[in-house]
Design a protein that fits this description.
Shape: elongated
Helix content: 10-25%
Bound molecules: adenosine monophosphate, magnesium ion
Structural class: alpha/beta
CATH topology of the largest domain: Molybdenum Cofactor Biosythetic Enzyme, Chain A
Number of domains: 4
Distance between the termini: 26 Å
Radius of gyration: 30 Å
Strand order of the largest sheet: 7-4-6-5-9-8
Number of strands: 26
CATH superfamily of the largest domain: MoaB/Mog-like domain
C-alpha cells in the first residue's frame, strides 16, 4: 500500500553489504523510510482503545459543565467568613443536590447545604467541608481559616469548549476513552489499522498441531510476532510456513505484498546454503541486506517488495524478538500514525553479575530487574543468552542494553535497562 522510494534504495549493492551497520543507524534508516497509513475510520468509543487518533479532538462542551461543589458541605460567600481567630454563624436556608436543576440564589449572609457535584448557587463562591464546621440545628458555626474559592470546581476547569483536548497521532488510552465519554462523544475518528503479512521460512519448521519429524522444530516466531502485532492492534495476515524454495518464496512474497502495509518474514536471511531470501529479493529490487552490529540479530533485510515495506528478520527466536522491538516496532508505530507515544522508558540499574561483552556492537541481554532491599534498581541476566534460547525472553522482564562502546560489565557497574512494561 506504500509506493514511496526507500531512503536508501541501493539494493544488494549497498555500501554496507560487506560492512556492518551500527544499530542506531539501521534504526534511523528504517524509520526514515516508512510512512504512516493515511486512511481512517470512525469507531464507537469502546473500540477506540489502542487506536491512533486521526485528528485532534476538540471539546464541544465545558467540563465540568457548571461550577460545582467538590465536597459535601455548605455553600457560602467568602465575604461572610470571619476574620482569623473569630467565628461566624450562618443560617442554613436550603439544600442543593447533584443532578437537580440549578438556578438557586444564596441569600446574603446565609448558607445552603450542598452535595458533591451540585451546582454552586448564584452568589456563592466557596464551599466549606461539612467536617470543617460545627452545626447546631439550622445554623453552622464557621472558623476563620478558610480561603475564598475552596472546594469549588470551576466550569471548564478540566476542558473548555473549543479546546483541543486530544492530539492527532496519540495512542488512545483508557483515560482518553474517559475524556471522550466526558465530552459526550459516542464515536471517534482513528487511523486505519495497518495490515502486516507474516510468514516463517525453513524446511525444518513445522506448525503446531502438525506431526513433527525428529529433524523438525515447531514454529515459534510466527506466534510471538502475531501476538506482538496483535497487541499493537495490527491486522495480521498469516501466510504460514514457506519452505526453503525459491519459487515458493517468490510466490509467497507476491501474495504478502498484496493488500499489506508491511511484510515480515523470519529466517533465511543469513548466508547459509538454504538462505534464499536474498536471492529471491534481488529480483524485486529495493531490498538491502544489513549486517547490523547487534547481538542477537546480526543479519536483517530491509526495503520494499512490490513497493511494500519489507522486514526480513533472522530465524533464531530471540533474535526475532530483539530485532522486532528494536527495529520493527518503531517503524510500525510510525506506520500506525503514532506521533505522541506512551513512554517505554529506560533506567539505570546496577548489574549484580559480570556480563561479557565485545565493544563495537550493541548487545541486548535479557534481564531480571528488581529493587534491592535498599530500594536500588538491580539487574541480573536470565542466564544463558543464546539467540535460540527463547526462555530467556520469557523469564526476563527487561532488556539490558549494552551500547556499542561498552565492554565487559563488572558486578556493581551501572547498565541501561529497558523494562518490558510499556514496551511489549
Ligand atoms: P535461519 O536464519 O533460517 O538459518 O534460522 C536460524 C535458526 O533459527 C535455525 O536454527 C532455525 O531452525 C531457527 N528458526 C528459524 N525459523 C524459526 C521459527 N519460525 N521458529 C523457531 N525457530 C526458527
Ligand atoms: Mg532457515
Amino acid at each position: 500500500m506504500q509506493n514511496e522510494t526507500p531512503a536508501h534504495e541501493s539494493s544488494c549493492t549497498d555500501r554496507n553489504e560487506f560492512g556492518t551497520l551500527r544499530a542506531d543507524e539501521a534504526l534511523q534508516r528504517i524509520v526514515a523510510a516508512v510512512k504512516p497509513v493515511t486512511g481512517y475510520e470512525q469507531v464507537p468509543l469502546p473500540d477506540a482503545l489502542g487506536r491512533v487518533f486521526h485528528a485532534a479532538v476538540v471539546s464541544p462542551i465545558d467540563v465540568p459543565a457548571h461550577t460545582n461543589s467538590a465536597v459535601d458541605g455548605y455553600a457560602i460567600n467568602a465575604d461572610d467568613l470571619p476574620a482569623s481567630g473569630r467565628t461566624a454563624e450562618l443560617r442554613i436556608t436550603g439544600t442543593i443536590l447533584a443532578g437537580k436543576p440549578s438556578g438557586v440564589r444564596l441569600p446574603t449572609s446565609q448558607t445552603l447545604r450542598i452535595m458533591t457535584g451540585a451546582p454552586l448557587p448564584e452568589g456563592a463562591d466557596t464551599v466549606l467541608m461539612q467536617e470543617h464546621v460545627e452545626r447546631q440545628g439550622d445554623v453552622i458555626r464557621v472558623g476563620g481559616r478558610h480561603k475564598r474559592g475552596e472546594n469549588v470546581r470551576k466550569a471548564g476547569e478540566d476542558m473548555q469548549t473549543g479546546e483541543a483536548v486530544l492530539n492527532a497521532g496519540k495512542l488512545c488510552t483508557p483515560a482518553d476513552i474517559g475524556v471522550l465519554a466526558s465530552l459526550g462523544l459516542c464515536e471517534v475518528k482513528v487511523r486505519r489499522r495497518p495490515r502486516v503479512a507474516l510468514f516463517s521460512t525453513g524446511d525444518e519448521i513445522h506448525d503446531i498441531g502438525e506431526l513433527r519429524p525428529k529433524s523438525g522444530i515447531f514454529d515459534s516466531n510466527r506466534y510471538t510476532l502475531t501476538a506482538a502485532l496483535g497487541r499493537l492492534g495490527i491486522e495480521v495476515r498469516d501466510l504460514g510456513i514457506i519452505p526453503d524454495d525459491k519459487t515458493a518464496l517468490l510466490e509467497a512474497l507476491s501474495r504478502a505484498a498484496h493488500h499489506s502495509d508491511a511484510i515480515i518474514t523470519t529466517g533465511g536471511v543469513s548466508v547459509g546454503e538454504a538462505d534464499y531470501i536474498k536471492a529471491v529479493l534481488a529480483q524485486t529490487g529495493s531490498v538491502q541486506f544489513w549486517k547490523v552490529a547487534i547481538k542477537p540479530g546480526r543479519p536483517i533485510a530491509f526495503g520494499r517488495v512490490h513497493g511494500i515495506t519489507f522486514f526480513g528478520l533472522p530465524g533464531n527466536p530471540v533474535a526475532v524478538m530483539v530485532t522486532f522491538y528494536r527495529f520493527v516496532l518503531p517503524a510500525l508505530e510510525k506506520i500506525m500514525g503514532i506521533t505522541e507515544k506512551t513512554l517505554a522508558p529506560t533506567l539505570t540499574a546496577i548489574s549484580t553479575g559480570r556480563i561479557r561483552k565485545k565493544a563495537g556492537r550493541t548487545e541486548i541481554q535479557r534481564g531480571i530487574l528488581y529493587r534491592s532491599e535498599q530500594s536500588l534498581w538491580q539487574v541480573r541476566t536470565t542466564g544463558k543468552q543464546g539467540s535460540g534460547i527463547l526462555r530467556s525472553m520469557s523469564l526476563a522482564n527487561a532488556f539490558i542494553i549494552l551500547p556499542d562502546e561498552c565492554g565487559t560489565v563488572e558486578p556493581g557497574d551501572p547498565v541501561t535497562v529497558q523494562p518490558f512494561a510499556g514496551l511489549m
